[in-house]
Design goal:
The structure is a single chain. The chain is α/β, with parallel strands linked by helices and about 250 residues long. The chain has helices at about 5-10, 35-50, 70-80, 90-95, 100-110, 130-135, 155-165, 185-195, 225-235; strands at about 15, 30, 60-65, 80-85, 120, 130, 145-150, 170-175, 205-210, 240, 250. The chain has a single domain (about 40-115, about 145-250), classed as Vaccinia Virus protein VP39 (Rossmann fold). The protein contains 9 helices and 11 strands. The strands form 3 sheets. It has a 7-stranded mixed sheet with strand order 7-4-3-8-9-10-11, with helices on both faces. It has a two-stranded antiparallel sheet with strand order 1-2. Helix 8 (about 185-195) links the parallel strand 8 (about 170-175) and strand 9.
């Protein structure tokens, strides 16, 4: 099973470090960092909104949410109570720290001087701004929502997740965590643990997936939505799927 350390996060995520104009012949590039991830975070949050019963969801466990930025956005926008369940080495070790030094190191390794940057334009594409005012959160941490560093492999671990939501849980949503498994056997272990976390049949389990089945250079399973649906149904898991295009696949569908 892959170890989600910083090197793997850097391999998976290489993103533009600015969304607007820069008076330079190229853009800086970041990795799994708050500002650079915002377009992806917003896309994932939009997919959550087509989850079954989303309008009634008040307490949700997000599985494999990394730092928890999607959960943070859902909490801020809709008032949803979220616990983010993730055991990634890089996430657990750094979530309470600022990203500034990491960003400085990334810029330096990419040939930029963090203290002598070119002119960056703001959201209006016309007004010069200080990019550091956008890159670094002002709360000094990576994310503000609760992180439960639990692998859900034991009753005690699952109980800790439920208690983080005061034993109120009406949805369990995996955030492309199935697509981050090495093998089908690994994926089934995660699916089973989500099922065991489920407090009652009314609590929906929803898996956000890519679903394209396109080949990748990354060492992960790359099933189509149909293949994931067949795996769930064959093993009698009454779980939902939402693919990258926002298509919803119901149990038995």
């Amino acid at each position: 099973m892959a170890v989600w350390n910083k090197a793997l996060f850097d391999q998976v995520y290489s993103l533009p470090g600015w969304q607007w104009g820069v008076r330079h012949n190229r853009l800086p590039r970041f990795h799994y960092n708050w500002f650079a991830m915002q377009p992806i975070v917003q896309n994932l949050a939009a997919r959550y909104q087509v989850a079954p019963g989303f309008a009634q969801i008040s307490d949700v466990a997000i599985i494999g949410g990394g730092y928890g930025w999607v959960g943070e956005l859902l909490s801020q926008t809709y008032g949803v109570n979220v616990v983010n369940v993730d055991t990634s080495e890089h996430v657990v070790n750094t979530i309470t720290t600022s990203e500034e030094q990491e960003l400085r190191d990334t810029l330096t390794s990419d040939g930029w001087d963090p203290d002598n940057l070119p002119v960056f334009m703001g959201p209006d594409w016309n007004t010069p701004v200080n990019p550091w005012d956008y890159w670094v959160r002002n709360d000094g941490v990576r994310c503000s929502i609760t992180l439960a560093a639990e692998d859900m492999s034991t009753n005690g671990s699952r109980r800790n997740v439920r208690q983080a939501l005061s034993n109120n849980m009406d949805a369990i949503i995996t955030e492309e965590a199935l697509d981050s498994q090495d093998t089908e056997a690994d994926a089934l272990v995660l699916i089973e643990r989500c099922e065991q976390l489920r407090p009652n049949p009314n609590c929906n389990v929803v898996h956000l997936i890519d679903g394209s089945g396109q080949p990748s250079t990354l060492p992960f399973i790359n099933y189509t939505t149909g293949e994931w649906r067949a795996l769930l149904d064959t093993n009698e898991f009454n779980h939902w799927l939402i693919d990258a295009a926002g298509n919803v696949s119901a149990p038995g569908g």
